[in-house]
Design goal:
Shape: globular
Structural class: alpha+beta
Largest sheet: 6 strands, mixed
Helix content: 40-55%
Radius of gyration: 23 Å
Strand content: 15-25%
Strand order of the largest sheet: 1-2-6-3-5-4
Length: 416
């Protein structure tokens, strides 16, 4: 299966992965805007206040269109009466609106996407209710210790960088959003120069292009892609992040943030995260959990952004064990960087996990993320080929350069 880059009359690219053996088609519109593109309020200064607007706008785009759908219920009925699913998500760097539906009904998906994104209603009377829903989402994340602490770690480690801005936003900002805020933000970011169309499934190629051209026609004036300046990673705080709350377990996040290196180093670090934390048979779970019993779950992860990479390890343990567990994590990182046997197993694991993902939605999400970062999706076979090309010397070089113990910023969420 190969991704095709197809031209559309609107000027925005269409990336299509045809899977003739499936019965459905997943499609979406990637909008290259996220929370890092918002203007946050500055204390003591008259500035715009867009904190959370990218995500709040995502909610408002489901509230009907000026032409076809009077309200959110009509939008939902049009999808759900044939078993379709529609949703969206907002991250630091992109917002993605997506649908999954039987391929014969894919016209419904493209119509809703076009009507919602090009002809939004933004009804004034629903804004208070929708913003209250967003506030409930914000409160729910604040009540979840893992979500709350990971967001606090990011905000503290990346203070002053736009990646420190929470995709959900700030309570006081969300409470003040008006229709004018949504219109202004949409006019700035929601145009065909900032769109990428993505589809995966069994719909015929010519039919898909025709639907896109019908519901996303050529604009009257050329629209250019928005640009985003790279921002340097701020210095690491001198002190650990320590927080206390009434919890039964201590949460630990320890990570390194650095300016985005060559893609081969990024790939080597992603492989290394699998080498130490790919599954139950790999060192983090074998030693920190199975041998020592310090935690129930532990994982290593690489978060890849347009100008920054963050490698981090996280786990929950008892207040008495977190230092011992953290020491063991650093010993594993130092010891296993040159383990060729682990590298070979990690490559097999990545291939095997990728082979298991045969659903249209999984391919759609993967493509959206990679397009946001690198401008194009990548075929499954090419992805595996590139991971297989990484050598143990490249892993050692990347780990030694980026993952020194003194470069890790540690946050500890302790019980009172």
């Amino acid at each position: 299966m190969k991704w095709q880059r197809l031209n559309t009359e609107s000027g925005a690219p269409l990336w299509f992965l045809r899977m003739p053996h499936v019965h459905n088609t997943s499609s979406g519109v990637l909008t290259l805007v996220g929370s890092r593109d918002e203007v946050y309020p500055v204390q003591g200064k008259e500035t715009q206040d867009e904190a959370g607007l990218a995500h709040a706008l995502e909610h408002m785009y489901f509230q009907g269109s000026t032409r076809c759908f009077k309200n959110s219920k009509e939008v939902a009925i049009y999808t759900e009466e044939v078993g379709g699913i529609d949703n969206a998500y907002t991250t630091e760097e992109e917002t993605f609106y997506f649908h999954t539906i039987t391929s014969e009904e894919v016209g419904r998906s493209i119509k809703i996407l076009g009507e919602s994104l090009l002809h939004p209603l933004f009804p004034e009377e629903v804004i208070p209710t929708q913003m209250n829903i967003v506030l409930r989402e914000l409160s729910g994340r604040a009540d979840d210790p893992d979500s709350f602490f990971s967001e606090l770690w990011m905000r503290t480690r990346m203070a002053g960088h736009p990646l420190s801005q929470n995709p959900i936003g700030l309570k006081e900002s969300i409470e003040r959003f008006k229709r004018e805020n949504f219109l202004n933000f949409a006019n700035k970011h929601y145009h065909r120069g900032n769109f990428v169309y993505i589809a995966v499934g069994s719909v015929e190629t010519e039919r898909l292009i025709g639907l896109i051209n019908t519901h996303f026609p050529k604009p009257e004036n050329p629209e250019s892609k928005n640009t985003r300046a790279a921002v340097s990673v701020p210095p690491m705080p001198n002190e650990r992040l320590i927080l206390r709350k009434d919890l039964s377990e201590t949460r630990v996040i320890s990570g390194v943030a650095f300016e985005k290196p060559d893609i081969r180093h990024v790939r080597a670090l992603k492989l290394f995260s699998y080498m130490i934390g790919g599954g139950m048979s790999f060192p983090l779970l074998q030693e920190v959990r199975e041998e020592k019993g310090y935690c129930y779950g532990i994982g290593a992860r690489v978060n890849d952004y347009s100008d920054t990479v963050i490698f981090h390890v996280s786990f929950a343990t008892s207040p008495e064990d977190y230092e011992n567990a953290l020491d063991l994590v650093f010993k594993i990182i130092k010891r296993e960087k040159g383990n060729g046997e682990l590298l070979a197993r990690a490559k097999k694991l990545i291939k095997g996990r990728a082979d298991l993902d045969d659903g249209t939605m999984g391919f759609l999400f993967g493509a959206a993320k990679r397009i946001s970062l690198y401008g194009e999706p990548m075929d499954h076979e090419k992805t595996i080929e590139l991971y297989n090309s990484v050598t143990i010397d490249e892993v050692v070089e990347a780990v030694e350069h980026y993952l020194g113990e003194d470069k890790f910023y540690t946050g500890i969420f302790l019980s009172k």
